[in-house]
Design a protein that fits this description.
It comes from Hephaestia caeni. Keywords: Activator, DNA-binding, Mercuric resistance, Mercury, Metal-binding, Repressor, Transcription, Transcription regulation. Pfam families: MerR, MerR-DNA-bind. The protein is mostly helical and 126 residues long. The chain has a domain of 58 residues: Orthogonal Bundle (Multidrug-efflux Transporter Regulator, Chain: A, Domain 2). Helix content is 71%, strand content 3%. A two-stranded antiparallel sheet has the order 1-2. Strand 1 and strand 2 form a beta hairpin.
Length: 126
């Protein structure tokens, strides 16, 4: 059992982040015992789940749905959400790869000559 500060530290977030997740309904707010709220390993597990799901690209609304799906054991919907997220990530990767290629081209053009305006700055200036 730990305090909200210990929970936040275990999850790699700030105390206000934990409180925000509680307000959003992603985490339970335990009753006060001896004037202090105490959190257990299940709370640490939930906080880490939220953080890992965010790192995978899920929004807090999607994470709330995943939590609800876990309670109802709806694996088919969880798989559907994962497939949707994979598609969104693939699209983002393609977008980033295109941006990287364009920036590499501009960097090569910039390195080719010291004459005239910089192609990088000119491209971003419109």
């Amino acid at each position: 059992m730990t305090t909200i500060g210990g929970l936040a530290e275990a999850g790699g977030v700030g105390v206000e982040t934990v409180r925000y997740y509680q307000r959003r309904g992603l985490m339970e707010t335990p009753a006060r015992g001896s004037g202090v709220r105490r959190y257990g390993m299940e709370d640490v597990r939930r906080l880490r789940f939220i953080r890992q799901a965010q790192a995978a690209g899920f929004s807090l609304d999607e994470i709330a749905e995943l939590i609800a799906l876990d309670a109802g054991r709806d694996r088919a919907r969880a798989r559907e959400l994962a497939r949707e997220k994979i598609g969104a990530l693939d699209a983002k990767i393609a977008e980033l790869a295109a941006a990287r290629g364009a920036l590499q081209k501009l960097a090569r053009e910039c390195a080719a000559s010291d004459e005239g305006p910089c192609p990088i700055i000119a491209a971003f200036a419109g």
